[in-house]
Design brief:
Length: 555
């Protein structure tokens, strides 16, 4: 047991937990018994708060633990996360402005709310809500896997359920302050998390090369280690001929999917204005610089000869421990404890936001839509609080029963799932040409094909055993009813990209057909002016005030 490291970690963890409980008094609302207050922080966060909140939401344990672990194991492929965050913000700026405006006018809390209003389809909105919840669950599990990797490195690595006991304690604390303070808790804690992360990483990228012979030596040693079959190496610091397409489609698919996640939109909808979003899309790429430095730690771990800790619960090496073990080996105990706290808090902040976003979807688009249509705002808020507890508990169970060695695949598989909402959510912000029934059919085809292909990917490529072992497939596996036009081509491609193309193809082909048979279009409650509105200062919805959709914005 590393007591000095654990003491520093526990002290900072206790500090942010107190902040989480105190957040209910920060920017105090008249009442927290409303989703706008509990789930969106009153929709009044300014530029600085939004920057820390969205940054804390998007740059997660996936960034701090899983990406360096992928670089450690595969080399260049792990850097796909860097170009995707570079192209991300220019791609999503204008769609997010339109989503923010129409949501402010109509009081939408979730993307499924928007789809319900845009297409007048309860079925399509429910599918979008269920997809968002399912895609978010593995993402939350990834955060908890990162937290558990830190705990394991400090010595909390017992076998069986006892090995997960510290994680359950962290889960209870997270659940309680999220239940009480809602989105205000992670928004306030994000300040501490980001300051810690920047301090730790800047020190690491300057100090580690002085101990390991410089970055040139680090990369040379990493190249030799990754290509050495005697040490189990199977990667390279350069992309191979078979994974260049995978790299490109994975980067683009990840960029398209990130703001389709409900937790990403939650941070945007909580902001106070369109100007806040514009400023953040300019400033958030600063995190991409941080991401690049974090990825390099995977090479530093290779050069330092780091070995992953064996998971006491599963008996398998836990690659998520690569960065924590590197800090333990190369830094003093107190600084390693500081780094562990940064990683642990970096996991808790997005986990809280994700659970809130999933709870909003359940409450607005399943509970109120189908189970209790007459629910009051107070009943909605109570239901969301309870749902957030269930979501966190489900994520903890997935960590207990899933090998965290594959934690990065949790996010990549979630990306395949959430990408299937792009036609109904993102494209609908610009055109309503696609018919709602064609969108349902496209979603079904893309989802079914994508999950089937993910299921067929083995966890152990050498033996072909297991399922859901990754998110890439060779082009030679692509076929239709036994016809395989690309047979023999071993070039890899991201499953999500192919599933999305099938989704769009079905939606485009079926749209004129279902219109020809006279299928009802559904009522669009939005108008063009809604997508450019600056929004209302209160949370009144047009359906509550009796105003036309554009009147709230003009106020």
């Amino acid at each position: 047991m590393q007591w000095t490291e654990f003491g520093v970690f526990a002290g900072l963890f206790l500090f942010v937990s107190v902040l989480g409980f105190a957040a209910t008094r920060w920017r105090r609302a008249e009442s927290m018994q409303h989703l706008d207050e509990w789930g969106l922080g009153g929709r009044k966060f300014g530029s600085w708060i939004t920057w820390f909140l969205v940054g804390g939401d998007l740059y997660t344990a996936y960034t701090f633990v899983a990406v360096p672990a992928l670089v450690f194991g595969a080399g260049a492929m792990g850097f796909f996360a860097l170009p995707y965050t570079v192209v991300l913000y220019p791609l999503v700026l204008l769609p997010l402005l339109r989503m923010w405006s129409v949501s402010r006018v109509h009081g939408y809390v979730t993307p499924a709310d928007y789809v319900r209003g845009r297409y007048g389809s309860s079925l399509l909105a429910t599918l979008i809500a269920v997809t968002g919840i399912v895609a978010t669950m593995p993402y939350i599990a990834l955060q908890l896997a990162g937290l558990e990797a830190v705990l394991r490195t400090m010595g909390l690595n017992a076998g069986g359920l006892a090995g997960h006991a510290p994680l359950f304690v962290a889960f209870v604390v997270l659940a309680l302050y999220t239940y009480q303070s809602g989105l205000r808790a992670p928004a306030l804690i994000a300040f501490v998390k980001d300051l810690l992360i920047y301090a730790v990483i800047i020190v690491a990228v300057f100090y580690l090369p002085t101990q390991l012979g410089g970055w040139g030596s680090i990369i040379d040693e990493s190249a030799a280690e990754l290509s050495d079959p005697d040490s189990g190496g199977s990667g390279s610091i350069l992309l191979g001929e078979h994974n260049q397409l995978q790299y490109a489609t994975l980067a683009l698919g990840s960029a398209l999917s990130l703001f389709l996640y409900p937790h990403s939109l939650t941070g945007i909808l909580a902001s106070s204005g369109r100007g806040v979003i514009r400023r953040n899309m300019v400033a958030l790429p600063a995190y991409s610089f941080l991401l690049g430095m974090l990825a390099l730690l995977g090479y530093a771990a290779l050069a330092a000869g780091v070995e992953p800790i064996v998971n006491g619960a599963t008996g398998e090496p836990d690659s998520n421990t690569i960065v924590p073990v590197l800090f333990d080996r190369m830094f003093s105990d107190w600084f390693a404890g500081l780094a562990y706290a940064a990683i642990g808090i970096g996991a808790l902040v997005p986990a809280a936001i994700m659970s809130i976003a999933a709870a909003n979807l359940w409450t607005r688009n399943i509970y109120k839509e189908h189970l209790r249509p007459g629910a009051t705002p107070a009943q909605e808020a109570k239901q969301a609080k309870l749902a957030s507890l269930v979501v966190k508990f489900g994520a903890v169970l997935s960590i207990v029963f899933i090998d965290p060695q594959f934690s990065i695949d949790m996010q990549l598989i979630g990306g395949v799932i959430v990408l299937q909402t792009l036609p109904a959510v993102a494209i609908a912000l610009y055109t309503r040409w696609l018919h709602r029934w064609a969108l349902v059919a496209g979603w079904a085809v893309g989802m079914a094909w994508g999950l089937w292909r993910l299921y067929l990917i083995p966890k152990d490529p050498a033996t072909g055993e297991g399922h859901f072992g990754g998110s890439a497939m060779p082009l030679s596996d692509f076929g239709l009813f036994g016809w395989q036009p690309l047979s023999g081509i071993e070039t890899q491609i991201y499953v999500g990209a192919v599933a999305l193309l099938l989704n769009l193809l079905v939606a485009v082909v079926l749209t004129p057909l279902v219109r020809r048979f006279g299928a009802a279009e559904g009522t669009d409650t939005t108008v063009e002016a809604d997508y450019h509105a600056t929004g209302a200062p209160d949370r009144a919805r047009p359906e509550e005030t009796g105003e036309a959709p554009g009147e709230v914005a003009s106020r």
